[in-house]
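Reopening this one. Same input as before:
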Amino acid sequence: MAATGTTFDHAVGVGPFTLADSTTVQQREPPRLLKMLVRARPLTQAVVTLQLRRAAEGTQVVMEEHPADLRSRILFNPLVQPLVHLRNAESLRRLKALAEGSEPIPDGALPPRRGVAEGAVTVTGSSRPASP
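Same output, byte for byte:
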Protein backbone atom coordinates (compact mmCIF):
# COMPACT_ATOMS: atom_id res chain seq x y z
CA MET A 1 0.00 0.00 0.00
CA ALA A 2 1.36 3.45 -0.91
CA ALA A 3 2.97 5.61 1.76
CA THR A 4 1.29 8.79 3.01
CA GLY A 5 2.23 11.62 0.64
CA THR A 6 2.69 9.33 -2.37
CA THR A 7 1.27 10.93 -5.51
CA PHE A 8 0.37 9.17 -8.73
CA ASP A 9 -0.94 10.45 -12.03
CA HIS A 10 -4.19 9.32 -13.59
CA ALA A 11 -6.58 10.17 -16.39
CA VAL A 12 -10.33 10.55 -15.83
CA GLY A 13 -12.95 10.64 -18.55
CA VAL A 14 -13.70 9.27 -21.99
CA GLY A 15 -12.05 10.13 -25.31
CA PRO A 16 -11.61 13.86 -25.86
CA PHE A 17 -13.30 14.53 -22.50
CA THR A 18 -10.35 13.23 -20.48
CA LEU A 19 -8.59 15.14 -17.72
CA ALA A 20 -5.08 14.17 -16.63
CA ASP A 21 -4.31 14.95 -13.01
CA SER A 22 -3.02 13.34 -9.82
CA THR A 23 -4.05 11.64 -6.60
CA THR A 24 -2.20 11.92 -3.29
CA VAL A 25 -2.39 9.49 -0.37
CA GLN A 26 -3.46 11.42 2.74
CA GLN A 27 -3.82 8.60 5.25
CA ARG A 28 -3.23 4.89 5.36
CA GLU A 29 -3.85 2.23 7.94
CA PRO A 30 -2.85 -1.06 6.30
CA PRO A 31 -4.67 -3.26 5.60
CA ARG A 32 -7.97 -1.51 6.30
CA LEU A 33 -7.93 2.15 5.21
CA LEU A 34 -6.69 4.29 2.32
CA LYS A 35 -7.67 7.97 2.16
CA MET A 36 -6.72 9.99 -0.93
CA LEU A 37 -7.07 13.49 -2.34
CA VAL A 38 -8.25 12.91 -5.92
CA ARG A 39 -7.92 15.77 -8.37
CA ALA A 40 -9.68 16.28 -11.70
CA ARG A 41 -8.83 19.94 -12.10
CA PRO A 42 -9.99 22.44 -13.05
CA LEU A 43 -13.36 20.87 -12.27
CA THR A 44 -13.15 19.11 -8.96
CA GLN A 45 -11.16 17.75 -6.05
CA ALA A 46 -12.49 15.09 -3.72
CA VAL A 47 -11.39 13.10 -0.72
CA VAL A 48 -11.94 9.40 -1.45
CA THR A 49 -11.72 6.88 1.36
CA LEU A 50 -11.50 3.14 0.78
CA GLN A 51 -12.26 1.02 3.82
CA LEU A 52 -11.62 -2.73 3.76
CA ARG A 53 -13.64 -4.96 6.07
CA ARG A 54 -13.70 -8.70 6.57
CA ALA A 55 -16.76 -10.37 5.14
CA ALA A 56 -17.92 -13.99 5.03
CA GLU A 57 -17.15 -14.19 1.30
CA GLY A 58 -13.81 -12.32 1.45
CA THR A 59 -13.31 -8.58 1.77
CA GLN A 60 -15.89 -5.82 1.58
CA VAL A 61 -14.58 -2.55 0.11
CA VAL A 62 -16.50 0.60 1.04
CA MET A 63 -15.83 3.76 -0.97
CA GLU A 64 -16.77 7.20 0.33
CA GLU A 65 -16.27 10.39 -1.68
CA HIS A 66 -16.60 13.93 -0.37
CA PRO A 67 -15.87 17.27 -2.05
CA ALA A 68 -12.52 18.79 -1.06
CA ASP A 69 -13.05 22.43 -2.03
CA LEU A 70 -15.80 25.00 -2.60
CA ARG A 71 -16.06 24.40 -6.35
CA SER A 72 -16.44 20.68 -5.73
CA ARG A 73 -19.11 21.25 -3.08
CA ILE A 74 -21.06 23.25 -5.69
CA LEU A 75 -20.56 20.56 -8.37
CA PHE A 76 -21.41 17.67 -6.00
CA ASN A 77 -25.06 18.68 -5.80
CA PRO A 78 -28.09 16.36 -5.64
CA LEU A 79 -28.45 16.42 -9.44
CA VAL A 80 -24.91 15.08 -9.93
CA GLN A 81 -24.92 12.53 -7.10
CA PRO A 82 -26.50 9.71 -9.19
CA LEU A 83 -23.68 10.08 -11.75
CA VAL A 84 -21.03 10.03 -9.00
CA HIS A 85 -22.68 6.93 -7.54
CA LEU A 86 -22.61 5.19 -10.95
CA ARG A 87 -18.95 6.12 -11.50
CA ASN A 88 -17.96 4.85 -8.05
CA ALA A 89 -19.93 1.62 -8.53
CA GLU A 90 -18.06 1.06 -11.81
CA SER A 91 -14.73 1.81 -10.09
CA LEU A 92 -15.49 -0.76 -7.39
CA ARG A 93 -16.60 -3.30 -10.03
CA ARG A 94 -13.31 -2.86 -11.88
CA LEU A 95 -11.28 -3.03 -8.65
CA LYS A 96 -13.05 -6.31 -7.79
CA ALA A 97 -12.34 -7.72 -11.25
CA LEU A 98 -8.66 -6.77 -11.00
CA ALA A 99 -8.35 -8.21 -7.48
CA GLU A 100 -10.02 -11.47 -8.50
CA GLY A 101 -8.01 -11.76 -11.72
CA SER A 102 -11.04 -11.75 -14.02
CA GLU A 103 -9.85 -8.53 -15.71
CA PRO A 104 -6.27 -8.05 -16.90
CA ILE A 105 -4.14 -5.24 -15.53
CA PRO A 106 -4.57 -2.30 -17.95
CA ASP A 107 -1.88 -1.69 -20.53
CA GLY A 108 -0.12 1.60 -20.93
CA ALA A 109 1.92 4.00 -18.95
CA LEU A 110 1.36 7.59 -18.03
CA PRO A 111 4.29 9.96 -18.60
CA PRO A 112 6.62 10.47 -15.64
CA ARG A 113 5.63 13.17 -13.14
CA ARG A 114 7.36 16.51 -13.61
CA GLY A 115 9.68 17.42 -10.78
CA VAL A 116 9.79 13.98 -9.16
CA ALA A 117 12.77 13.70 -6.82
CA GLU A 118 15.57 11.28 -7.67
CA GLY A 119 14.85 7.84 -6.27
CA ALA A 120 11.11 8.47 -5.92
CA VAL A 121 8.73 5.65 -6.75
CA THR A 122 7.08 5.99 -10.15
CA VAL A 123 3.71 4.33 -10.61
CA THR A 124 2.70 3.43 -14.15
CA GLY A 125 -0.68 2.31 -15.31
CA SER A 126 -3.97 3.60 -16.50
CA SER A 127 -7.40 4.11 -15.05
CA ARG A 128 -8.88 3.23 -18.43
CA PRO A 129 -10.29 -0.28 -19.03
CA ALA A 130 -7.81 -2.82 -20.36
CA SER A 131 -7.86 -3.71 -24.05
CA PRO A 132 -9.32 -7.17 -24.70
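So the earlier flakiness isn't reproducible anymore. For the record, Residues 116-132 have pLDDT under 50 and may be disordered.
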